[in-house]
TrEMBL record:
Keywords: Ion transport, Transport
PANTHER family: ATPASE H+-TRANSPORTING V1 SUBUNIT E1A-RELATED
Protein name per the record: Vacuolar ATP synthase subunit E
InterPro entries: ATPase_E_C, ATPase_V1_Esu
Domain of life (superkingdom): Eukaryota
Family label: Belongs to the V-ATPase E subunit family.
GO cellular component, as recorded: proton-transporting two-sector ATPase complex, catalytic domain
TM stretches of this protein: none
GO molecular function per UniProt: proton-transporting ATPase activity, rotational mechanism
Pfam families registered for this protein in UniProt: vATP-synt_E
Position of the signal peptide: none
Length: 180
């Protein structure tokens, strides 16, 4: 039968120092993790702000912006596959969107073996002027819309590209078992 021995004051003090040192070390490691995570989130947020600013700059080059809009409208035409669609844009983009819509309509007809489509620029409902650019494509009934604004495209890219952005900025995380 074993006996329970009481610890001396020196043994109790020693155990308390060990526990205190362990707790302090854990707290320092947790604080380091939190700081690294905050730096990572800050860098990602900063890159997103820079991307938003670059998106706004695209709209200043009319030829480039018109080509982008044409492709965004074409994407909507192919997705909806309807004879009539409406396009929403910012008021200041009306002219460039009209040109892009005409070019998209011609390319759609060519690629779809002569299939005609009518593209109407929505004059009643406009995209907010504070958006970076892009268009929203709506089917003839108004029930289906495709949001091809720059902000929406960037949001989609963020969720898809976040793992590779994180790896590029901070390197591969050795603790991760699975890659996205």
């Amino acid at each position: 039968m074993s006996q329970i021995h009481a610890m001396s004051d020196d043994q109790v003090a020693s155990e308390l120092r060990k526990m205190t040192a362990f707790i302090r070390q854990e707290a320092l490691e947790k604080a380091r993790e939190i700081h690294l995570k905050a730096d990572e989130e800050f860098a990602i947020e900063k890159s997103q702000l820079q991307a938003n600013n670059k998106l706004a700059d695209i709209t200043t080059d009319d030829a480039k912006y018109q080509d982008i809009l044409k492709n965004l409208i074409l994407e909507g035409l192919y997705a909806l596959n309807e004879a009539k669609i409406s396009v929403r844009c910012r008021s200041k983009d009306d002219d460039v969107v009209r040109k892009a819509a005409d070019a998209a309509q011609a390319e759609y007809k060519e690629k779809m073996n002569g299939r005609e489509t009518e593209i109407k620029i929505d004059d009643k409902d406009k995209l907010p002027e504070e958006t970076s650019g892009g268009v929203t494509i709506i089917n003839s009934t108004g029930r289906i819309d495709i949001n091809n604004t720059f902000e929406e495209r960037l949001r989609l890219l963020q969720s898809e590209a976040l793992p590779s952005v994180r790896a590029t900025l901070f390197g591969e995380n050795k603790n991760r078992k699975f890659r996205d």
